[in-house]
Design brief:
Number of strands: 0
Oligomer: single chain
Radius of gyration: 19 Å
Strand content: under 5%
Shape: globular
Distance between the termini: 47 Å
Largest sheet: none
Order of helices and strands: HHHHHH
Helix content: over 70%
Structural class: mainly alpha
């Protein structure tokens, strides 16, 4: 899968697994819903192992990406989301860090790929692998926080009010 359609389609199974987990959360456990979670997760693991390792290796310099590790990362992510959202003992933890990270998901989604790769390309020759990863991660999180704090939060209330047909509050 190449081009923008290939990129979109290669991530669709992860989206499908997440949506199916949401349906399990909202509507309850059924064999059919869990089958959709499992099939989407398996497809995501295969796509990660077969397509994404090559894509990463074509862009990144240095070591070869492990297909097994990348597939296990996909599996681990789906399992983590399932545990956090579906296991009552975990779902009700009051972790302000997770709330803060959750607020950053959309701005991080918007910025991480292009900003992250630009930082990696620029910093890797001078800093090496792990320092580059740390700096790129920190800067992408800082950018996501700035977008959340200075764009999303100020616009949220007035926009919600406008969409609901009520005048904005003077927050």
């Amino acid at each position: 899968a190449t081009g923008s359609a290939g990129t979109f389609l290669s991530w669709a199974s992860k989206f499908g697994a997440g949506m199916a987990l949401y349906l399990v959360y909202r509507e309850g456990h059924t064999v059919g819903r869990w089958a959709v979670v499992l099939l989407n997760t398996a497809q995501g693991m295969v796509i990660a192992a077969e397509l994404k390792t090559t894509a990463i290796d074509n862009i990144a310099s240095g070591h070869t990406t492990s297909a097994v590790v990348l597939a296990l990362v996909v599996l681990g992510t789906v399992v983590a989301v399932a545990v956090v959202s579906l296991v009552p003992a975990v779902a009700h933890w009051d972790l302000s860090l997770l709330t803060w990270l959750g607020a950053l998901t959309y701005p991080l989604y918007l910025t991480h790929e292009y900003v992250g790769w630009a930082l990696i390309e620029t910093l890797y020759p001078a800093l090496g692998r792990w320092a580059t990863l740390a700096v790129a991660t920190a800067l992408c999180l800082a950018l996501a926080w700035s977008m959340h704090r200075f764009v999303e939060r100020p616009v949220h209330g007035p926009l919600r009010g406008a969409l609901a047909g009520t005048p904005p509050r003077g927050d």
